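Usage

Read records sequentially. Each one opens with the input sequence:
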Amino acid sequence: MSTYGNVTSLSESPLVEGLLYAGTDDGLIHVSEDGGRNWSSLDKLPGVPDFFFVNDIKADLFNPDTVYVVVDDHKSGDFSPYVLKSTNRGRSWRSIAGDLPERHVVWRLVQDHVNPGLLFLGTEFGVFFSVEGGNQWVKLSGGTPNIPFRDLVIQKRENDLVGATFGRGFYVLDDYSVLRDVNTDMLENETVLFPVRDARWYVPKRPLGCDRDDCRSSQGGAYFVAPNPPFGATFTYYLPEQIRTRQEQRREREKPLEQAGEDTPYPGWDALQTEALEDEPAIVLTVKDADGNVVRRVEGPVTAGLSSRGLGSSVSCARSLGSGGPTARVLSEPGRRAGRAGQVHRTPGATDRWLARKPRSDADLRSEVDSPTHLARIGAERQGGVLPPRRRTKPCRQRVCGGDRRSRDCDRCDQRGYPSVDGKRLAVRGGEFHLTAGAKT
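and closes with the structure output:
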């Protein structure tokens, strides 16, 4: 596609020092096994036009002899996807484009750092993945526009896939590790609930001083912000086909008859009444604690393919004094209106992947109230004072929980709306919350 001979992609094997691969814009692939002192070249790939453009070349993370290359020839009017693999350090190649759609120029390839067969492709029209090292590819949608993904990178600690698009910013696929358990038979036949990643409990940092996730404070509309991953545990499941209502199933059966110009049979009054009274289909995820008690039921989408649903977690919070101050928060167990929940953990031996939580007693909470490591330092300008009188008339759930009128997890307040523990009001001393001895409610 060019005559300039520029190197457009370079990769070094993570397993063999000095094993280098270089691709150029004039249809050449170069290989060096001695750190660049000597190079061998090839200018032909099977099924690929001459003078191809090397978009990406990647040495395999597990096999020192395997290498992948992504090329294209779109400047000559050829928009075909070209993805090839070599298992002998570039001496011979075979296509692994498989069932990729036509006219899908491929820009980038990345390999999972745990499962050698899990590959991701950034194409002109979205991101695809394969669980068998190529040949069969599945498109990842997840709400992303149908746009070019020019670069992909894996954040290994969090198992996140990060994609850079052409003119539409960055997108992050949170925790794609569930794809490591996917296989071809599963995609065709099974409904699967994947393992749940341990959920982290934390208090989000609010550098701009407000409690909303999309807060820009006084920075103006041009200040870029983006949502964090969902708080709490996330369920991921796969449905081979969409769950449909009786009416939708009947309409599917009638469509071929309509297209053939034939009459559709009348289903009968009872069938129509049953359809009218039928609830919308839903996937219900039931969460139980270690004792088998139902903690929560969460509904998820019923569309075919991979879906994720966040469990979420209740958050009780003691609001800071003054504008822009940090916030002290107490993480509360969902379904309970008092106390502080411990870390989320899996129930040992559980077969249905229930999540269990370990609530803490009032004595534990009182000890944490006195600990500066668990409560934020608030309102330096208000040291030594109790909560200001102007807040006394506001309801607990409005003032103590960051203005969220819908929250129902703020029971640790006295009758006037002050945070309290066992009827004792929390006062502010030295920028910290403390129990006020003898305080009346």
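Summary fields computed downstream for this record:
- The CA atoms of residues 425 and 436 lie 5 Å apart.
- The helical segments are 184-189, 246-259, 269-277, 362-369, 396-399.
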